[in-house]
Structure formats: C-alpha cells, structure tokens
Amino acid sequence: MEKNKMEKRFLRGLLIGNLLILLPILYRKPPIRDWIIVYVYNAITNGLLDMLLTHHKVIRYPVRFLPKKFKIHILFDFLIYPTFTVFYNQLTKKDKPFVVIYKLVLFTIPPFFIELWAERKTKLIEWKEGWRWYHTYFSIILKSLLTRLVIEALRKLKFLTE
After folding, report:
1. Residue from 75, 79, 77, 83 nearest 35 by CA
2. For the segment 24-46, what is each residue's pLDDT rounded down to a tens digit?
3. Which of 31, 39, 74, 124 is placed for a possible disulfide with 118 were both Cys, Cβ 3.0 to 4.6 Å?
4. Is 72 left (phi over 0), alpha (psi -120 to 50) or beta?
C-alpha cells in the first residue's frame, strides 16, 4: 500500500477544485488585468517566502507535489493562495480600510483551520523551530494586506485604469 495515500488524494482534490474555480474568479469582475497582477505578484512572493522558510527549516512539507524538484508547497504557493487573494481583492475592491481588514480577518479563518488540521493530522506540513499557529494566521493576514496595498497603490498611481 502506498505511503501517504490520503494526503496525495487530498492534494489532488485541492488541485482539481482550485482549477475549477480559478478561471471563473479571474473573469468574474473586471478589470481582469488587476486580478492577473494580484495573482502573479502573490504567487511570486509566496514562492520566495516559502523558499526562505523551508531553507531555514521553519516549515517542511513531507508530502507535496513534485517533491524531487521543489521543497516548497507549489500547490499552495502558486495556485491556492493566489486564487484566494484574487477573490479577497475582488470582494474588497471598493471597501474602506476598516472593512478590508475586518473581512480579511474573517476570510482567513477557514484556510487557517485547514492548515492547522493538515499540520496536526497529516504529513502535508510540519512546523518547526518555534513556528506556531498564530505565525501562520497573522502572516497570511499581513501578506494579504500587503498585496491589497500594492494593487491599490498601482491604481492610485494610475498604473492600472478601469
């Protein structure tokens, strides 16, 4: 029997589910260019941050896609979290700062509990060297706010027009 069969099925399910919702989310609300910029910016910075964390052995992903090529969680870094960020940016595009933060705090709770479950019950993720649940939760909030600020700054500087 194959090791980590449940984890691999879970990852495949996440991949298929995310691919099914990605295009409708990207094309859901114009301007599409904004959402592509949010997606690409988020994916690149996710990959860089995850490389830093895995290199310093803060986080480890025992079961992951393409384990011989990557130490990072490419599914989360380049597909799941960028999709989440695009959706969040679409929901908060016209909101005031307090509402943006309020929605983000609430919006990050479900993915956080999924990661917490994955860390405790599977071999999908291992936190090391003092990394705790609150580091994950607040880093997702800060990273999402940073992405939101970057896209808003680009709009204000007229790099992006409607």
Report:
1. 83
2. 877 777 788 888 999 999 999 99
3. 124
4. beta
